[in-house]
Specification:
The chain has helices spanning about 1-10, 15-25, 30-45, 50-80, 90-100, 105-115. The chain is mainly alpha-helical and about 120 residues long. The longest helix has about 35 residues, at about 50-80.
Length: about 120
């Protein structure tokens, strides 16, 4: 986490844009914590509030659009093709939707992402 903060402090708006875009797509980047740190940098005078806001909004929009395009183009076929490599099969997807799985958070993320990205299960 310290490395991410140092990178944002050093590179500014470009780092904020890139990290938010990648975090929204699904990489484990702490988006909310990053924005809190950005507020700290604004308060310290390192970043301009308007520039930080623009970079954050643009990064979030890019990430959301990227997630949508990935889900729309790859869709359920990607789950069928590559799900076995991350231990996520159609049977697991059905369990998640039915609520009979032990990992509610992970399934919530998979199902929510699939719904938001414009795909849906094949049944």
């Amino acid at each position: 986490m310290e490395g991410i903060f140092a990178w944002v402090a050093e590179h500014g708006y470009g780092a904020l844009y890139l990290l938010l875009a990648l975090g929204v797509v699904g990489l484990p980047i702490p988006d909310e914590t990053l924005l809190v740190f950005t507020g700290y940098l604004i308060g310290r005078g390192t970043l301009n509030p308007v520039g930080a806001f623009a970079a954050a909004v643009a990064g979030a929009w890019t990430g959301i659009s990227g997630s949508y395009l990935l889900g729309r183009t790859l869709g359920v076929g990607a789950v069928h093709r590559y799900g076995k490599y991350v231990h996520f099969t159609e049977a697991r997807w059905r369990e998640c939707i039915a609520g009979s799985t032990g990992s509610a958070t992970g399934c919530y993320l998979w199902v929510t992402t699939s719904r938001v990205c414009g795909t849906s299960p094949p049944w």
